[in-house]
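Hi! If you just cloned this repository, the fastest way to understand the data is to look at a raw example. We've pasted two of them here, unedited. The first protein comes first, obviously.
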Amino acid sequence: MGDLTRMSAADLADALGRGEVSSADITQAHLDRIAAVDGDVHAFLHVNAEGALAVARESDARRSAGESRSALDGVPIAVKDVMATRGIPTTCGSRILEGWVPPYDATVVARLRAAGLPILGKTNMDEFAMGSSTEHSAWGPSHNPWDLERIPGGSGGGSSAAVAAYEAPLAIGTDTGGSIRQPAAVTGTIGVKPTYGGVSRYGVIALASSLDQPGPCARSVLDAALLHEVIGGHDPLDSTSIDLPVPPLVEAARSGDLSGVRVGVVTELGGEGYQEGVRARFDESVELMVKAGADVVEVSCPHFRYGLGAYYLILPSEASSNLAKFDAMRYGLRVLPDGVDAPSAEQVMTATRAAGFGDEVKRRIILGTYALSSGYYDAYYGQAQKVRTLISRDFAAAFEQVDVLVSPTAPTTAFKIGEKLDDPLAMYLNDIATIPANLAGVPGISIPNGLAAEDGLPTGLQILAPATADDRLYRVGAAAEALLNASWGGPLLAQAPELVGGRA
């Protein structure tokens, strides 16, 4: 059948259904690919080879008996290391959780197992999902398969890199301010942030509980839809879970059409600070949508310009609270202070958190604790929440005029590793276009829309839809993907130079 690692998840599922290939062969092919290239890419923190093959063999037995559990039964997947996986190490990219093996599964992981997907392993990430480049991982950065000297995005750069490097046909990420969509944009892959509450957060190690949202990473819109239907739906274990059925996402992805669709170009998500090549590819994408029958208008969302500031008060505040549980008392790392014979609990906690947390985590904990402190809560955190409400109102007003909103996903292509590591503000600006969706809880997708002329690296088109209208996202996204693929003569990844430094 050729190279199994180059096939889409949908094609692999079809081949499995026809009995043309086994899950064991597909899984082994991806494990071989990981062994061959992950030394360069560093997409994985832990490879679950034995466990994945065991699940693959079970899937093959079910299919032989005509008892397939799902369309993706037997298609392997990678999981971001922010999710609890029973029996598989979960570190959240941090030394403070080094060696922790959860006794339970996150709901998303439980649904993957129930649907029969072999888990290839856990992917690299910025520590506790704090970052836009995966450089803040305690285990070292992941590398962009398009150029190993560049970042693959963050915080979920490991998942995007694994998919782009053909180490996995599918991956799971989490998106707090763009951590699925921005990595997708800079690696030429698909990334979807579902409606907040549309995919359970139970068992996802929390960064900012009101912003975090798990979602799919893939190489096609259809593949993302297939995965989204597996992991989506109400979960009584998550108090923020939406008690609604999952919309027909796969049907939407198969019936993409732009005729009569009202598309809003967000004035505030473009212009100054956006790389020229990013703007050019975005303008070309909009023109293709117009030619396909979309009605494109410019839409102003005036409070989006305050989104970055509001986000970097709300997120650190929630992170400060969520990370308080890593106290060296119950699980994870424990460091005893030097020169203290009988240290107090506070001294052990201080030594452990100092050694176990990286600089970016410490920076955000300090900022969040300050914003929540007496005398500053109303001035900072309270005001940021008011801005969040205004951004939600901007979305509501915009969606009265249009069906979807579009913008570049990220203001630049992938930058070089180390280029912005000492400039936190420059790093934070990478999320400027993706943050508003998290603040309002609306769904978004990033699809590849070309290569920037300056550096030949991928750019992304972001599409946003109203809350719970995720099917609209897939319908419009699939149509745009088809137009863009036709303009290149195939998927963008097929236009790439030999991935992974010439070692395909």
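Ok, and the second one:
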Amino acid sequence: MTDMTDMADTLKGALHGVKVLDLSRVLAGPSCTQILADLGADVIKVERPHIGDETRHWAPPIFSDNTSAYYATINRNKKSLTVDITTPAGQTIIKQLIADSDILVENFKVGGLKKYGLDYDNLKQDNPRLIYASLTGFGQTGPDAKRPGYDYIIQGLSGLMSITGPSDGEPHKVGVAVVDLFAGLQLTIGIQAALLARQHTGLGQQVDVALLDSALSMLANVGMNHLASDKIPPRLGNQHPNIVPYQVFAAEGEAHFILACGNDSQFAKLCEVLAVDWHRDDRFMTNPARVTHRELLCDALTERFAQQPRAYWLAVLDQAGVPCGAIHNVAEALAMPQAQAREMVIDFAAQGSPVRALGNPIKLSASPVSYRTPPPHLSEHTDSTLADLGYDSEMIAKLKADGII
């Protein structure tokens, strides 16, 4: 039986007691620190005085309290502290916070924090347990290390855009900044690994994650196809490079749906639904054969699917155990009963905020994520954070007058 103390510790989150100083901005870094915050870490977000994170101004749309939807995407459960780190007084504040932090997250250009004495080599001298997490476009090493990195540019450089979009059209980016978000996930994983390593060694380390590295690793089986064959992977639109039929089809009335036959058994079930014996045809009997004769098979499927409405195909295919699905718009996706049941849409009305947000997909049975506070207003926690460091009201007032905070 769990006692009340154990229950209280569980409700505090898996990373309760872990202190994070967040010097990152925009999307990739803040997406990492929000995950840490959702898991219970205490995250202080450092922003520029009067301006804050750029994404505060990426609007419309905004919520009724003037919080931009973009900023609200990745900044809940954090405290906002404004500090001008280019000043000696600002650097002193940051170093005071670092002295009590487990993790520092930053996405400045390589070497950008060294002139302020906030680089890893300098900080680890006084805080050897510090985990210093750096997220950059190209990483801390290599000929491009000092280049700035942007999701869109990296999608192009990495080859991701070359395999995205219609086969007979121009390359497309993915609809959201997936490279930023995947790099944020990689940084989160690296930080958690460093926390575990510190338990054994007592020492922190630098976590170095790059947008380009993350994008290249995301090429996954398509990248491996090239390494195995030396062939340049083509852009296949909604088709799959290794599996057929695995793509979008149009039903009667031009309503589209996805068909995803991942193995020969599922293809046989599809043939039963269509009342054809293609699964016994040497050209289509196995997946390698279907890949070879992709165009012939998919043209025949296109003709068949155009004869009935989408609802019909989804019903009969699902009943037969053939993987398929509708293509939702965002409103339809978020309104799905499954999405609601999994708490993938949350709101902060109970905390007096108009913000609604996408939920965290991590479900922990014993120490679940929590949505404690909405995205903070700029400088909302500056006074209280400095007071915790020992600054009195006169000292805080002077820092404000000098433009430091």
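That's it. A detail worth noticing about the second one: The chain has two domains: 4-218+342-401, 246-327.
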